[in-house]
Amino acid sequence: MSAALRDLYQEVVIDHSKQPRNFRKLEGATRTAEGFNPLCGDQLTLYVKLADGVIEDIAFQGAGCAISKASASLMTAALKGKKQEEALALFRRVHILLTEGPSGAVKPEEVGKLAALSGVWEFPMRVKCATLAWHTLRNALEATGSTQ
Q: Where are the domains of the chain?
């Protein structure tokens, strides 16, 4: 990854961690799930409002490191309006990107703005921070989280 691209990604992560999008309790959520990373204490509650298999709205609350918060913010921004199946497919692509890196089976350009997280794989201790929101999403969509 070029230095200019790495700097851009860092700016996006910092922006989303300081001003997270969709950081609120979502009234009328049809699914909720809790996520917790015991290694660093990151925790979040994810709220999803599904209507006819489409993510009509999505939000989160919680506390955590900059990467955890930025990942949840980027994820919620990317998923509004997506079908449940599309969201789960995106989970799989992002998970590969975060665990195998951009030279793996998924290229950063395949995930749009979520590519800002692609440098995380270089720091194995931070991968769990970046994937927390995504695993919580999967739990909510696969109904292993609570439904309301």
A: 3-147
